[in-house]
Amino acid sequence: MNTSAFSLSPPARDGLGVGLAVGVSGLAFGTTAATAGLSVAQACALSLLCFTGASQFALVGVVAGGGSVMAGATGALLLGARNTLYGLRLADVLGWHGGRRIAAAHGLIDETAAVALAQRGRRDARTGYTVTFASLFLCWNLTTLVGALAADRIGDPAVFGLDAVGPALFLALVWPRLREEGRRSRLVALLGVLIALAATPLVPPGVPVLLAAVAALAGMGGAAGSDGDTPGDREREVRP
Amino acid sequence: MTVWIVILVTGLGCYLMKLAGLAAPRRLLDHPKVRGFAMTVPIALLAALVAIQAVTEDGALVFDLPRVSGLAAAAVALLLRAPFLLVILVAAATAAGLRALGLS
């Protein structure tokens, strides 16, 4: 693998791309938080301490709408639950223990999970995870600060097509699994999409994605020895 | 003051939930049902995330032509096996281009 200073390894390149592309959305969070009445320090503390976009937007949204802060916190924590689900999978994929696991846990979000799971082998998964975490954390916190400071001077990110970047990058990251893992994973993905869209008008923002986890149950049942459960698959994933 | 407390509590809660998955007990992770669920659930969550980000806004279904076109262009790029960063660029350029043309 080529990891010289001039050419990054593919997982590092993917991670950096995601980190920078998504990290820019900290601008949107910073401006939203400031508009909702949070101080610059509070906006930055949220990005530093929560570091999970959906939860942060939920909390700020409730505060902005005049809702109780406890309701906001509950919503934010509910949204954070999907990170627990990623963790169940990444525990084996990354295989970190002790202090590294304690530190890595803070970076466990949609983007880092998606990049890590798109890699082959533990080594690339670790690289992808670490690079995404580092670049996204830096970028997200910096742009939160800028957004909160200059809330009234930030233009609409949609002009640059940034609203298409989010869905496109998650699509690109699940793509290899949809292509290689056969019908069952495509069925789970489709079911997840349908559940989330059907739930969207009915439940608060963020909850539809969590509900989509139910689709995974469909992927488990049925034919014995689901895709992910064969000893061969386990072997492949554990090998560095 | 209350806001600060909520920020600290939420931050701690979010971290603990991340850690709970990553540091789940070995026996739980090795349980076949949990294992099967954990293997599959990221696909469901990430696919849902694609749809939510593409066609919803603030809890309502929304069809935004430039954004959806950007995603469609990304899918085409993926079918043509374009590298990851190019896929992202194609999505952004398509959406921005259509908006510049006044479509929305």
The computed structural class of chain A is mainly alpha
**Amino- and carboxy-terminal Cα gap of chain A:** 13 Å
* Overall helicity of chain A: over 70%
The overall pLDDT of chain A, averaged over residues, is 85
Number of strands of chain A: 0
Q: How many domains in all of chain A?
A: 2
Walk me through this protein's architecture.
The complex is a heterodimer of chains A (240) and B (104). Chain A has 240 residues and is an all-alpha fold. Chain A has helices spanning 10-23, 26-35, 40-49, 53-64, 69-94, 98-105, 110-117, 121-149, 162-180, 182-199, 207-211, 214-220, 231-238. Chain A folds into 2 domains: 10-161, no CATH class; 181-240, no CATH class. In chain A, α1 packs parallel to α8, α3 (40-49) runs antiparallel to α8 and α7 runs antiparallel to α8 (121-149). The relative contact order of chain A is 0.15. Chain B contains 5 helices and 2 strands, in the order αααββαα. Chain B has helices at residues 2-22, 26-30, 32-55, 65-79, 84-100, and strands spanning 56-57, 60-61. In chain B, a hairpin with a 2-residue loop joins β1 (56-57) and β2 (60-61). Chain B has a domain at 1-30. Chains A and B meet through α1, α3, α4, α5 and α6 of A and α1, α3, β2, α4 and α5 of B.
Compile the SSE list and pairings.
The complex is a heterodimer of chains A (240) and B (104).
Chain A lengths: L9 H14 L2 H10 L4 H10 L3 H12 L4 H26 L3 H8 L4 H8 L3 H29 L12 H19 L1 H18 L7 H5 L2 H7 L10 H8 L2
Helix pairs in contact in A: 1-7, 1-8, 2-3, 2-4, 2-8, 3-8, 4-5, 5-7, 7-8, 9-10, 10-12
Chain B lengths: L1 H21 L3 H5 L1 H24 E2 L2 E2 L3 H15 L4 H17 L4
Antiparallel strand pairs in B: 1-2
